[in-house]
Amino acid sequence: MESRLPRPKVTLTKAISTMEVNIKSISNKIAKEENNIPASVSNAKSTATSSFASKSTYPIKENKPPTLVRAKTLSTITRSNNVKTVKRMGTTITHGETKKPCLKPSVTKAVTNKPNSKPLITNSTAGKTNKVIQNNTDKLKRWDLRGRLAQTSDKLSAAQQKSKDIESKYNELKELVNTLEASEATCRTKAEKFEESNNILTNEVQTLTTEISTLQKHQKDLETRLKKEEELCKNITCVLNEYKEKCKTQETQITEQATQLTTLKADLELKKEIIENLTNTKEQLQILTYKMDKECRSLHNNIQELKGNIRVFCRVRPRTPKETEQMKALCNINYIDDCTIEISKSDGSDAMSCSGKQRGIKQEFSFDKVFSHKASQEDIFEELSLLVQSALEGYNVCVFAYGQTGSGKTYTMEGEMSKLTEGMIPRTVRHIFKERKQFELLGWEYQIKASFLEIYNEHIIDLLDSQPKTHDIRMVDSKGQDLYVTNLKIEEIHSPEELYKSLETAQRNRAVAATQSNERSSRSHSVTRIQLIGTHSTKQEISIGNLNLVDLAGSERLKSEEVVRTTETKNINKSLANLGNVILALLKKQEHVPYRNSKLTHLLMPSLGGNSKTLMLLNISPLDECYNETLNSLRFASNVNNCKTGNIKRSRMLLQNTSN
User: Hey, which of 190, 200, 246, 521 has its CA 20 to 30 A from 20?
Assistant: First the structure.
């Protein structure tokens, strides 16, 4: 762990530097004191030391006055430092001329004129000394050599004493310096240690400052959080108070409801018994409804078979606004009853037969149902809805519109966009989805698939696929008579809107051209195929019903003005002629029925002679100019109405068989 001691305020480097400065100042003082000794004293000291060194063999002892050696006649004289020189009156001996004393005045000058030396005597005493020196010089002139020698010896002893004192002081200072150097070394080691500890402490201080900064930031964050939490706490307390009030009201409600619960539990037990009884009765009723549904379907099928498996409806279209403006003549059409129609020309002339023989003026035809020009699309679909019901039950149903160009086939089958004028195909789709909900109540779930194709110039074209492909009609299996078309686009339908969209695309892609009979004439046979696959999970049953809605091309003779449409008209008439041949073969009950002579009869083979309920919607024009074409269409429809097929079976099987 890093130490958290406070950083020292006083650094050791300063102490060391002050010690070094003190040592240097002491050494400088010693040097200055040595420099302040007068030159005469130093010279005398040097001479004295040299003379003593030459005469005496032992060293000078410290703190003892020096011994002066005089001449043999003179005795040794020792003087103290403080003793003043006494004037002596010498005897008056005349030896001739007196010699002048050899005094060097430079000594005093040297002492007084030293620039760097410090004065040993103060200003007050300086004047006195100068006077004494002058007096002494005057007296020295009078002295003899001995007196001068004694004076110099006194001075020398005083200088020696002074030098000894200085040496003792110097030694003491040396010892002090040594002790200080030793203490300096120890202090340096301590200083190094203190520097290391100082570095450690600085690092610790830096880390602590970073930690403090982070802690300060964290503290600020915590303070902001605290403020938010306090606000939240206030809000929560307010909410808590509200909930406490609510709890009080709810507690009263709980007590009330507890009493209600006891009563409701008693009622529940009674109702459980009632529900058990109802579930038992419901199961029994479901079994009964299933049986009754089966019986209803079988009865419905029997009624349809009694009406005929190939049925023909005749519809007379009304005159268009354009035809009323042009005042075109109408045929004489009489509706004898719901199943019989009578027709003749407007001028009453006889109609000629194909053999050239003259026939009666009025010709009568009977069908399963005849609709006048006043009949609406809804009236026709009421009869057609029974067949759609059969398709949901698992039967194959085929509805095709026949008639000349401009007789109203496309209008009957497709109609217009409004609900009142929409045709059989949109109405069947709506009816399928309506009946589907009722079948779901009985336990049936339906999957609906649709495809659209046309037969144009004996070629099958997919109306939902823009890419050209080859399509062939093939058998599903070798036993049955069900057919399918190869490479045909089949779409799964989940709502009526989806089927309407695909129907619109099919109408846009269908081959249409303008002729003299009709501005927008269908030049191909359009086939709408709807497959209904129903599954009953509880009864483990599956039913498959196919619904074919066919809008045939216009049946008419080729006119000289329409040479451009020669190939189209030839192929249309050829396919319709083959359809007539197939119906004649069925009427005569021939062994070979020519279904494969055209693509149309080959595709309608299961509907005409196989396991299918077929409805032919004959559309005729009321105009007098179309009388011959109307007669041909009525004759062809009467032949179709006389055809009879065997009993029809619905395709219903068990789910276990399908899985195997």
Answer: 200
Last-in-domain residue among 234, 263, 286: 234
Helix intervals (H) in 351-423: 377-392, 409-413
Is 348 marked as a binding-site residue? Answer: no
Indicate if 372 and 493 belong to the same structural domain: yes
Q: Is residue 497 part of a domain?
A: yes
* pLDDT at residue 286 tops 60: yes
- Looking at the structure, do residues 493 and 408 belong to the same domain, yes or no? yes
Say which amino acid occupies 190.
Answer: K
Q: Has residue 283 been placed in a domain? A: no
Whether 330 and 202 share a structural domain:
no
- Max avg pLDDT among 81-95, 121-135, 464-478: 464-478
- Tens-digit pLDDT profile for residues 55-72: 333 343 444 444 444 444
617: nearest Cα among 550, 538, 522, 536: 550
Say how many C-beta atoms besides its own lie within 10 A of residue 628's C-beta: 13
Residue 451 in any domain: the answer is yes
Total structural domains within the chain: 2
Distance from C-alpha of 582 to C-alpha of 592, rounded to nearest angstrom: 9
Looking at the structure, do residues 347 and 223 belong to the same domain, yes or no?
no
- Interatomic CA distance for residues 37 and 159, integer angstroms: 8
Same domain for 325 and 215: no
Query: Distances in Å between the alpha carbon of 367 and those of 60, 361, 634?
Result: 178, 20, 10
Residues counted in the chain: 660
Per the annotation, does 443 bind a ligand?
Answer: no
345 annotated binding-site participant: no
Mean pLDDT of 147-162: 91
Residue 163 counted as an annotated binding residue: no
> Is residue 365 exposed (0-12), middle (13-18) or buried (19+ Cβ within 10 Å)?
buried
Same domain for 224 and 316, yes or no, is no
**What is the C-alpha separation between 607 and 617, in angstroms, rounded?**
14
pLDDT more than 70, % of the chain: 68
Asked whether residue 432 is assigned to any structural domain, the reply reads yes
- C-alpha–C-alpha distance, residues 358 and 465, integer Å: 51
Contact 563, 549 (CB under 8 A): no
Q: Which pairing describes strands 310-316 and 613-620: parallel, antiparallel, or unpaired? A: parallel
Q: Are residues 333 and 201 in the same domain?
A: no
427 φ/ψ sector (left φ>0, alpha ψ -120 to 50, else beta): alpha
**211 and 319 belong to one structural domain:** no
Distance, in Å, from the CA atom of 150 to the CA atom of 442, rounded to the nearest integer, reads 164
Predicted TM-score of the model (pTM) = 0.55
104 carries a ligand binding annotation: no
The reply, when asked if residue 405 is annotated as ligand binding, is yes
Q: Is 447 annotated as a binding residue?
A: no
Using the 3D structure, point to which of 234, 263, 289 is the last residue of a domain.
234
Residue 495 zone, left/alpha/beta (φ > 0; ψ -120 to 50; rest):
beta
Predicted pLDDT of residue 482: 73
378 has pLDDT over 80? yes
Domain that holds residue 562: 310-659
Q: Picking from 145-154, 355-364, 465-474, which range would have the lowest pLDDT averaged per residue?
A: 355-364
